[in-house]
Amino acid sequence: MNGRSALIGFAVSVLALAASAGTAAAAQAWTPPKTPWGDPDLQGTWPLDQLGRTPLQRPPQYGDRLYLTDEEYKKAMAAAQVGLKAAAKEEKDNKLGAGHWFEYGEPLRQTSLIVEPANGRLPPLTEKGKQLAATMKSSWTQTVFESPDDFNSLDRCITRGLPASMIPFPYNNGVRIFQSPGYVVIQLEIVHETRIIPLDGAPPLPSNMQTWLGSSRGHFEGDTLVIDTTNFNGGTPMTIVSSRATSVPTSTQMHIIERLTPTDHNHIQYEAVIQDPDILTAPWKMSFPWTRNDKYEFFEYACAEGNEQTGNYIKATSPRFAEARAKNGGIAAGLQHASELGAPTNAPSPADNIKR
Question: What pLDDT is recorded for position 4?
């Protein structure tokens, strides 16, 4: 690193620390409203669609630097504006595409959502983690499907799991918080899931009771909601943050502690520390702001229409069904028929189709 680069990096770090201190001071100076029963009121809609331009893991060129320089941020914002105008361009071109589908928003000043380790990247896998990662399957890694086990939990419209469900995705990023005496409820737009979090001090489920989203228990530390989650079934990838980012497994030993701190009426600072000693050699932490948007509307997450897609893909690709496909004309015959009618024959593969 030359002297000028070092000076820029130092200046950015100083500004970042100043901004962080300012945010902390503002949070201490601001007192959130209370619910009628006395808990800090976090209710509202907090979509993650404005965070999609900031990667979960830090690109290696930034090293340990947490924040973009002014010049880097300006370029990132310019690139984001192109994406934000994509839907209008598609309307003008009379061509529907990703501009109507993806919700990436604008970048943060952060270089990554992960803030620990210092390099902003997931820790290395353990030997067991590597072995499990090598056996993971999904619609993005397979072309022949023999059973539902060849699909991951999101392919099957079950869940993104945790911590993935709390990380921005290309679409369906809605997050809502509801509260009632003794409970906080977090509703997720994608896979239409609802996390019901007791605040009554009850112990977690027995260790032999394991679920897709684990067993969550919460409490308030001042104005900060702290959520402690264990009892995972180890059946989901850790970071389904895009269609192909599915190669980090989880285990029943995963433990997540989340902290939701309101910093003003329109912002919550979200933090999560994730440890899974069976899979990763060290814990990791992500931290980023949520922004209120009570005008955001949830769309139905229909996923695989009629819940028939998984079975159809197995029947369409497995050698076990080759005779049935040949007897009934099969995929090739269908494409030939479409060609004769003048229709396009570049049909999506099962791996593509399952995301639609």
Answer: 39
